[in-house]
Automatic annotation (TrEMBL):
It holds the Pfam family Phosphorylase. The lineage of its organism: Bacteria, Pseudomonadati, Pseudomonadota, Gammaproteobacteria, Pseudomonadales. This is Alpha-1,4 glucan phosphorylase. It comes from Azomonas macrocytogenes (Azotobacter macrocytogenes). One of its GO terms (molecular function) is glycogen phosphorylase activity. The keyword Glycosyltransferase applies. Keywords: Carbohydrate metabolism, Glycosyltransferase, Pyridoxal phosphate, Transferase. One of its GO terms (cellular component) is cytoplasm. Belongs to the glycogen phosphorylase family. It catalyses: [(1->4)-alpha-D-glucosyl](n) + phosphate = [(1->4)-alpha-D-glucosyl](n-1) + alpha-D-glucose 1-phosphate. PANTHER family: GLYCOGEN PHOSPHORYLASE (PTHR11468), GLYCOGEN PHOSPHORYLASE, LIVER FORM (PTHR11468:SF3).
Amino acid sequence: MSLEPTAVDAAEVAAFRDAVLSKLAYAIGKDPEHAFDHDWFEAIALATRDRMIDRWMAHTEKSYREKRKRVYYLSLEFLIGRLLIDSMSNLGILEIARQALADLDVDLERIRRLEPDAALGNGGLGRLAACFMESMASLGVVAHGYGIRYEHGLFRQVILDGWQHEQTENWLDFGNPWEFERPEVSYLIGFGGSVVARAGETGETKHFWHWAEGVRSIAYDIPIVGWRGSSVNTLRLWRARAESDFHLERFNAGDHIGAVADEARAESISRVLYPADSTEAGQELRLRQEYFFVAASLQDLIRRHLTQHDDTLDNLPAYAAIQLNDTHPAIAVAELMRLLVDIHGMPWERAWERTVGTLSYTNHTLLPEALETWPVGLMERLLPRHMQIIYLINAYHLDSLRARDIHDAELLRAASLIEEDHGRRVRMGNLAFIGSHSINGVSALHTDLMRKTVFTYLHSLYPQRISNKTNGITFRRWLYQSNPELTRLLVSVLGEKLLDSPETMLRELEPYANDNSFRQRFAAQRRHNKDVLARLVKERLNIDLDPTALFDVQIKRIHEYKRQLLNLLHTVALYQAIRADPGGNWVPRVKIFGGKAAASYQRAKLIIKLANDIARTINDDPTVRGLLKVVFIPNYNVSQAERIIPAADLSEQISTAGLEASGTSNMKFALNGALTIGTMDGANVEMHGLIGGEHMFIFGLTAQQVEARKRAEDYNADASIAASSRLKEVLSAIRNGVFSPDDQERYTGLVDSLIWHDTFMVCADFEAYWQAQLEVESRWRDQTSWWRSAVLNTARVGWFSADRTIREYANEIWKVATPGVVIGR
């Protein structure tokens, strides 16, 4: 569907049509009569890419000429999704392309579905990085994203007999038409070996790292185009190659496996996103990945800086801002110090000032297990020079505290970069904190809790370093492209200026919430999107959905703190209630789940199995009469989200309060007019303030109440279960095998863990959640009230734009200019 006027310039249509035919002939080697759909996709993508290149080169040349300060965004994930429609829309050629292809009897809607999702991310962190890259381009910030070009990336989720199975994601099987390989941009990355200290010419000690293994990084560039084609930035991804070529002599000697062993070991670094780290080999590969992409990226940006800024690194903080997206790139602190001191001969104190002045760190989690730590032994073996540097940073850090007359043993132990309590480990969160001039949380609540929990001691020592930068989403992707029906409706009443200024102009929608005619049109676009999703579910799962039912959606990574289990308990309770009172005034409801569990996260995989067992039981039960349907959509990704979110009536944001850093799906759902049921957690708190509590369904314990319960040593779920016969019946049914007749013991451990150690307050919040869901049903029955709230959700969510977030980063952390989105065509 297009957002642009249908009348387009005939010459532009003809030019694009000719460009596609030229690519089909000279890049693909096909004529129209013999071209398959994938040939057409590649030709269209290449013709679109050509439209980016002039802007890309002009933007790059201008940034060099003006010596603009650059932002370098280091992230292990970039969940960029499909790029064809994204790029066409931002370039303003979507309708031109649609008409040009229609002239060739090619359906763009069919072709767009052939593009694979780039498997470069897992969840919110990777999607945030992608939104930020697009916003930086739209705002004119000169930026480079740095990550890994995973050959397979995150696994493809297949559900077999209700269980998750991981299969290889072959997203690169047909190549990637958006990327440019840069074989000339290559750096050698070292691992292992030893460090030798020698006296320098002036008597100072110099350290030389003689690594045991070298891995070569090869750059691949993807242009990221901003809105209206205003500027184009670069996402540079690194591929790992062996330092030396194939060992032909060993192969000819009969050692066919040994001849390729080094090549396989090196290339495994860029093979898979998040290899399972439950084994020592998996942990080592994860650390190798993190160091590999950080080392290549820092060498690359230093090369660029020296070329552009008079061959000196003294002014690095003035011209480079490096943002660490979580702890995955935290080794950058030690690596930048190594490069400045060992390679470029900068004195330690000056190098430390430049490092801290250049680096900043975004924290994304309050879960202690998610703040990475690495065994000292592994670091000493794999990165011996970095371990020396970390020890030295720690020594100077602790000495500086003692010099400030801070001698409290507990504080010094907590502030140390080395954890001593459970085997000596390097605390990467502390390293990122100490080595950065700015540390930010991603929602107001998260930032406040970060100061009080994971970084309480470091915050007391460096009280000015932590700030808040609440996450945002790009409306170009999550409204204009995902929901063209709603976008056209909004433009029809607010004008096309909305497309350039949604942050401010969405507020002008508020009066229409009281307009019955507009509410009906708003409901109609939702119904259209629900019809589309229902057809998709029928095609993939052979389950019939009623588009008039309440679509209740929870799509996100499967994790216990996100509490898909709480949603499933409510599903069972609702099922039991419908069966007990078949003549009741029930609101027809479709429960939609989607998300992947980490390959080694067995409890999360069991929750997926439970969801599918419950779905099978309910969907096959004729006594329910279609009043309740449950679907688990496999292989959730960006493209699936673009279909599901515009069709959602109710958005499930029910994490245990105090554990979700921010969330971004909550913003996407609200932007598209879904009402939120959720806890006061993450960005839900700010949404509550901006949208209004009467237009959401808030329930459950607060973060402070959760902490109080956790501190009670004898806490278990007995009291919660005793107070709710409904919950007791649900747990009994699951535990006794009602939903798993083939294995009645399957969920015994899962239920018992809730009873004896309700870590994530599933039982504690159950009854409040049930009552909130009753409020949902009551509001749904009053369609005037429901659609008024839906319109106001869309109208009041403009503040959660990634553009606003990037402006805050740019002004307050990076100190770079934001020229802004170009208004008009």
